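Input:
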Amino acid sequence: MHDLGGMHGFGRVLVEEDEPVFHAPWEGRVWRLSGTVLRATTIDRFRYTIEQMPPAEYLAASYYERWLWAIERLAAEQGLLDGSDRPARIGRPSPPIPTWAGRFARGDRVRVANPVTTGHTRVPRYLRRHVGRVERVACAWPNPGESAATGAHGEPELVYTVAFDAAELFGPTADHTVTADLCESDLEEP
Amino acid sequence: MSDETPARTPAERAEILERHLHDHGHVHHDDVDAAVAAAEAAADDGPSPALGARVVARAWADADFRHRLLTDPVATIGEYQLQTVPIAVLENTASVHNVVVCTLCSCYPSGLLGNPPTWYKSFEYRSRVVREPRAVLAEFGVDVDPDVELRVHDSTAEQRYLVLPLRPAGTEDWDERRLAGLVTRNSMIGTGLALPP
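Output:
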């Protein structure tokens, strides 16, 4: 349910003036406990776990309820609820800024792959199969699908900032540009 | 544990989870108390909109800093707050307006601005701003001229984005401290402009 970009049916964005950091004490505690639980896994495994929420529950839950749903499961998965054994803290991916050249260069036209998967992907549905142009290399980062599946960071791959004409995505009345940061393995020759 | 009936409230579930983690030595209640208090206090020298405003104001006032911020943002923002993920700075100009979203979850430059506001994480913002940004920005009171290129940045990877808003006219002789007072959180996300003097 998480993949919301471009969906119809949602109304006006409601803005709460001077909102507190947390709206209830339990939200702050869930935020901090998430840090404890996520020490031994990847942010993509956390995202992937939230993505397992049944869609109706996802839509009915508040933001930190979704976090709570995920860290309850990740804490159990890591055995944190059964004993004091602590899985090892995972390392940060390195380097975040690439030191090597990639398959694509600035200005190249690229087509977004259509990664139909039951696993985790960071390719939004609204960009799949569309053609954009590479603006620059954004960063280097381990593949999100692998990080989600294994709970650990593999070798980094290049991530490109790719720009799309919104008219290509959403029809001729759209006059803006959308950019997204996409893994090299999710991009093809057009 | 969450699937039992009658359904427990989130507060009850959070308490149970914290008690388990505490009892098995994975976290201490005092550490949770302290972290929540620190996040709520949002000190000016930690990640917060106020810290972001200081960075933006300096970029307005100091051309060398602005150049470094745009060309080496991780290290330059790191002079204020260590950035543990890549961050890019999007410069608004007379012809380009930038706005940031995460359609897949809630990716946000928390390492500089602190936790995101609720509207940023809302289904409404996440679904609509990539498709109809002018309409969404109008709801925020921002009317982008049709001649201005509107660029919506979907934070789909680990790179985070900071918008460098336009410096308001009439502030030419203002110092950084005064300028920082014009920089709103929304202006650094792109759903607002810097305040007029």
